[in-house]
Amino acid sequence: MDEFYKIKDNTITLFVKAVPNSSKNEIVGLFEDALKIKIKAPAVENKANLELVKFLAKEIGVPKSSIELAAGATSKIKYVKVSDCPVDKFENFCATLNLNK
Fold first, then answer.
1. CB–CB of 18/52 below 8 Å?
2. 47-71: per-residue pLDDT in tens?
3. Partner of 33 for a Cys bridge, out of 2, 11, 48, 76, CB 3.0 to 4.6 A?
């Protein structure tokens, strides 16, 4: 299994498979080398992307300003950068998901 995130220069890059129009926001698990996340918002007018940023910030425990959609705005596979997040805090987030890197 490939890693679903990379850490470089205090920035964490997450590889996310987003599933818009879901019944609720939730992290489902791993899908190949990406973290599969269901998002309630529809994939129109950037609503799902904004909801994804808000949801990830809450789940990881960082401000929304620390989450940046780096690539994949119109794709289901997205690259999300998390800045100003201590690595141990991110690893604790991963541990709560019972995911193995």
1. yes
2. 999 999 999 999 999 999 999 999 9
3. 2
